[in-house]
Write a structure and sequence with these properties.
The structure is a homodimer. In chain A, about 45% of the residues lie in helices and about 20% in strands. With about 425 residues, chain A is of the alpha/beta class. The first copy, chain A, has two domains: about 230 residues, Aldehyde Dehydrogenase, Chain A, domain 1 (3-Layer(aba) Sandwich), CATH 3.40.605; about 150 residues, 3-Layer(aba) Sandwich (Aldehyde Dehydrogenase, Chain A, domain 2). The longest helix of chain A has 19 residues. Chain A is globular and about 65 Å long. At the A-B interface, helix 1, helix 10, helix 14, helix 15 and strand 13 of A face helix 1, helix 10, helix 14, helix 15 and strand 13 of B.
């Protein structure tokens, strides 16, 4: 069977499953999630055995220890996988939403109703818990999913899939709802990315290389972010203490997450904040790179180059630049930003409101840390990732963002004149 | 200048315009639309002159008379172009919408606010009025637009663009908001479809060949429909007179529009409706093609082949098939439908509701004609087309569907623990 035939086989099963998923009530999908959680707990020994195989192969292959840690499962991690599924079951039903409802003069009633997207492909790397997470989020939102995990986790993923399949079956849900590419052939990812007949959307979860490859090759819509080159602008009206606390948190709380601050823009008229800000950031161990003006004012800054404005460090490094007012800040962000999370620190509400309205970013922040760019912090419960595209879902992608809508038109025999 | 440099020049201008459009209030965008309408009326003579050039070239080139009719402008058509812009100005502001608004336990207030998509490409064929329509819909929704009309209408389109540019300038709006590809080079469309750095979305308006080409080649999201292979299913509980009236309207009101019915599915237990239904459809001049069962019952039907189920006739031809209940009807639609508009005629509300919920179509209809699949009939005012994809906008695409959203996070100095 070639890869396209393989995709077609998975696709036919997934499409059939979408029709049966569409007939399920929210309570039935939640019951299936709980059955899956139970099956994961019940098969803990088998999952740990499979994981041991993966770990041995990975050690023999000389995988880095950070990667080994991501790959490793233990009873606690298996418990939290099951708890994750139960937490998804507790979320409100994203399909039980009438988004709009109106009646036309001819008596036609039109509703805009949340419906599943259809079949979602999830491509991920070494963490085997993504198998359960992604399956759970898709099931909750009524979507069928085709999974493709990292080759180093293949045994773990298969063992988790087997448990999920038992859970689905116990709940009377078509096993086609959660499938996995049965081959580790690297070409299979390519076939998946081009399978627009079978997949309605692809979500890559992993490092930049994976996301860039998926974005470049996909012929189906992709929900993802590649970069989080995030900016804050300190306006002259900013409270200096707030500015220092917010910037320090946005950069240094966890410098490696996609919501971390990467470039700070300081208004020429807000420069008095600089010494105390540099004190705080250097105290936290942050390396600072500034433009000529800032380096002249404080010799703890290293000169920044053009490349710094375009770089997502994901590290304890901050690029800093002087700007001449909000307009100049917006132009810099439009040129170098990645549309993830950007914001302003200002006491002047009118300035802040106008600034946010002119930011093109998925998330625009006023007087708060950029590290709030997170599904949990937004109150979405679990998230499958963050999207920086312009269409469909932007920002954190939770179960609501895994739905689309359908117009339902209810008539009493109306014909169009 | 090569085509990529050309796209970059247009793109830079369009991106700059998006920043100034984002700063405009709804009233300012509406004023610009009225200025554009005025400029079109003021430049009627120049537009008609340009149109005469196009018509002469088209006649010399032997263009078919239906195409010539689409291409031709006259004072009435110019007036209705201007009135179209004024009608768009009257619509509610699609950007003045807070789609959601909530406050987190830490005091962060999060709003989901409608914002423009950014830069939209519109690719269309011979009708020059699309130049004004598309520009008007994009301006209303705060988007910059890059237009590419048919080469046979090049002089007309340029004259209309010049008038629109004057209108924008008079209203103080950046002329980069409405631009046109300055070359008729066919390769330019290819460059446009790949310009994901400059375009956020492409809308093709035209025949199937254009849409198929755009969908195949685009590296930016496309909002369009390729086919409207629409179905109605007559359930045994249907009122026979309603079924006949709705089917006749859905097929024969205007057989050539994308919302027209193409295949009728009749439940085995609803077959008593057949003779009167065939009477009515043949009386209206509709050619009927049926499966073996239906041809056996009524010799006015010709045998349908497999190809008929997959065909969008856009003509006075109807394919008809017997099905064994809703499940069978849904399976047929899932296999052959195009996700545009499908529905059920049934008096049984529970059956109808379950049927609609399991249709994957953008528009699902109960007891009404499929020809209501139209932005005007939905109450959207003007529409730029109909979309059958699963994401972002589905069904009629009006000004609301030309917007996306942004999260705005308002804090008082919150940092993430």
């Amino acid at each position: 069977m070639n890869l396209n035939e393989l995709m077609a086989e998975l696709g036919v099963g997934a499409r059939r499953a979408t029709r049966s998923l569409a007939a399920l009530k929210g309570g039935q999908r939640d019951a299936a999630l709980r059955h899956c959680a139970g099956a994961i707990r019940y098969h803990q020994a088998a999952i740990l055995d499979a994981n041991r195989q993966d770990l041995e192969a990975a050690r023999a292959g000389g995988l880095a220890s950070a990667m080994l840690d991501r790959l490793e499962l233990n009873p606690e991690r298996i418990s939290s996988m099951a708890e994750g599924l139960e937490a998804i079951a507790e979320l409100p039903d994203p399909l039980a939403r009438v988004l709009a409802d109106w009646t036309r003069p001819n008596g036609l009633r039109i509703q805009r109703v949340a419906v599943p997207i259809g079949v979602i492909g999830v491509i991920y790397e070494s963490r085997p818990n993504v198998t359960a997470d992604a399956a759970g989020l898709c099931l909750k939102s009524g979507n069928a999913v085709i999974l493709r995990g990292g080759s180093e986790a293949v045994h773990s993923n298969r063992a988790i899939l087997a448990a999920l399949g038992e859970g689905l079956e116990a709940a009377g849900v078509d096993r086609g709802a959660v499938q996995m590419l049965p081959t580790q052939d690297r070409e299979a990812v390519g076939a998946m990315l081009k399978a627009h007949q079978w997949l309605d959307m692809v979500v890559p979860r992993g490092g930049k290389r994976l996301v860039a490859r998926v974005q470049a090759d996909a012929r189906v819509p992709v929900l993802a972010h590649l970069d989080g080159n995030n900016h804050l602008y300190i306006h002259p009206s900013a409270d200096p203490e707030m500015a220092i606390a917010v910037v320090a948190n946005a950069k240094m709380r966890r410098p490696g997450i996609c919501g971390a601050l990467e470039t700070l823009l300081i208004d020429r008229d807000a420069l008095p904040v600089l010494p105390a800000l540099v004190d705080r950031l250097t105290e936290l161990g942050c390396e600072l790179r500034g433009d000529e003006m800032l380096c002249g004012l404080d010799d703890r800054l290293q000169p920044a180059t053009e490349a710094d404005w375009a770089t997502e460090y994901l590290d304890a490094i901050l690029a800093m630049k002087t700007v001449d007012g909000p307009e100049d800040a917006l132009a810099h962000i439009a040129r170098y930003g990645s549309g993830h999370t950007d914001g302003i620190i200002a006491a002047d509400e009118a300035v802040a409101e106008a600034f946010l309205a002119r930011l093109g970013s998925a998330i625009a922040v006023h007087n708060a840390s950029t590290q709030f760019a997170d599904g949990g912090e937004f109150g979405f419960g679990a998230e499958i990732g963050i999207a920086t595209g312009r269409l469909h879902a932007r920002g954190p992608v939770g179960v609501e963002q895994l739905t689309t809508f359908q117009y339902r038109v209810f008539g009493t025999g109306q014909t169009r004149p």
